[in-house]
Amino acid sequence: MDRSDYRKQIDRIDEQLVKLFAERMEVAGRLAEYKKENSLPVLDVRREREKLHSVSEQSPAELRDYTELLYSLIFELSRSYQNRLIGTGTEVTARIEDAVKNTPPLFPERAAVACQGIEGAYSQIACSKLMRSANTLYFSSFDAVFSAIEKGLCRYGVIPLENSTAGSVNTVYDLMMRHRFSIVRSVRLKIDHSLLAKPGVKVENIKEIYSHEQAIAQCRGFLQTMPGVKVTACDNTAMAAKLVAESGRDDIAALSSRDCARLYGLDCIRENVQDRSNNYTRFICISKDLEIYPGANRTSLMVTLAHRPGTLYKLLSRFYALDINLNKLESRPIPDRDFEFMFYFDLDVPVYSPKFIQLMGELDSICESFTYLGSYSEVI
After folding, report:
1. 82 neighbors 32 (Cβ within 8 angstroms)
2. For the residues 103-108, what does the mean pLDDT come to?
3. DSSP 3-state assignment of 249?
4. Range list of β-strands (E), 192-229
5. Disulfide check for 109: which of 69, 75, 132, 136 has CB 3.0–4.6 Å away?
6. 181 assigned to active site
């Protein structure tokens, strides 16, 4: 026998498998109707466990692991199909559908927006990209930004969520969970750090550099070329520039944006000193109420899974079964729980897609817990 003969055998077997799979899914569909009529849940953990053991025992010993993997996926597909037939309306899906229906068709051009920092901060630059004429109020911390929205001082807040070099801002995720706020839009901003000093100051005169700790981390290579120079962290890159401008010293500098040079009357004595040229930060616009504007094609979730083998696989297989792409998957240790993790997901799927609503209705049965952070579009 040659290769073509083996391929013909496989093709013949595959024809039988496809027919049997379709027959199995048809029966699963009828079972779904029975479960619906009798108010039974789609997931029967005991039945799946017994079935998995049974098919494993029927399989040759050297194929048991493969058999269990195959049937685990079949169970996921079967449950997904049953959920689609039955309908999986939940509190979350109801909120989403209500927000899609009641959110205005256009994102506002004017609104009161809370930002961390001062004029010239990267959050303010991101805000100006998101909204043509924002009434920007500045606060000293992320926590104060959330409090301003909670108290009704501002309708929105603009804060950084992740950086291409430094990763996610976990504090922001924690605040999103605590306040139960929603993401309504995002913007990706290229971050170019420059070394700013008072007019006439030379690089060799500098004895201390101020900036935000993330900017310092992103410019570590450049800072290593200045041995003996003290590096001091402060709350914000714009605050660092203002501090330099208002000080009586001519031996200090700030790592900040070129916008801050113009704003605070400083000279840019070194440009683009960050380690990577593709240094981007994604900023999110958050609100107290769930708002989903037309064109929303990205959804953010925080998910906690049971600490058992295969739980992440089962969730990922559901994304695969529904043909939903991931823009982001990141893990983070759960405080006070040894070796257990939560996951950040960004899904690339239109909010109007039936498969999106189906997924959101099924997450309760897959995850230990999850937090829906909003559906939105991203400004480039």
Report:
1. yes
2. 94
3. coil
4. 194-197, 208-212
5. 132
6. no
Instruction: Return the pLDDT at 180.
Output: 94
pLDDT at 26: 95
Cα–Cα distance measured from residue 184 to residue 284, given in angstroms and rounded to the nearest whole number: 8
User: Taking the model in full, what pTM does it have?
Assistant: 0.82
- Is residue 88 pLDDT above 70, yes or no? no
Beta strands in 32-181 (DSSP E): 112-116, 135-139, 156-163, 167-168
Could you read off the pLDDT of 128-170 as tens digits, one per residue? 999 988 999 999 999 999 999 999 999 999 999 998 877 888 8
Structure tokens, 157: 């807040």
Per-residue pLDDT band for 39 (boundaries 50, 70, 90) equals confident
CB 234 within 8 A of CB 194: no
Q: What pLDDT is recorded for position 120?
A: 92
283 is catalytic: yes
Banded model confidence at residue 364, pLDDT cuts 50, 70, 90 = confident
Query: What residues pair up with 59 in beta bridges, in sequence order?
Result: none
Pairing of strands 156-163, 280-287: antiparallel
Reported residue count of the chain is 380
CB 218 within 8 A of CB 245: no
What DSSP assignment string belongs to 277-334? SS-EEEEEEEESS----TT--EEEEEEE--SSTTHHHHHHHHHHHTT-EEEEEEEEEP
CB 32 within 8 A of CB 40: no
CA dist., res. 305 & res. 95, Å (int): 23
Say how many C-beta atoms besides its own lie within 10 A of residue 91's C-beta. 9
Pick the catalytic residue from 107, 181, 283, 343. Answer: 283
> 118 near 236, Cβ under 8 Å?
yes
Which of 139, 281, 343, 370 is catalytic? The answer is 281
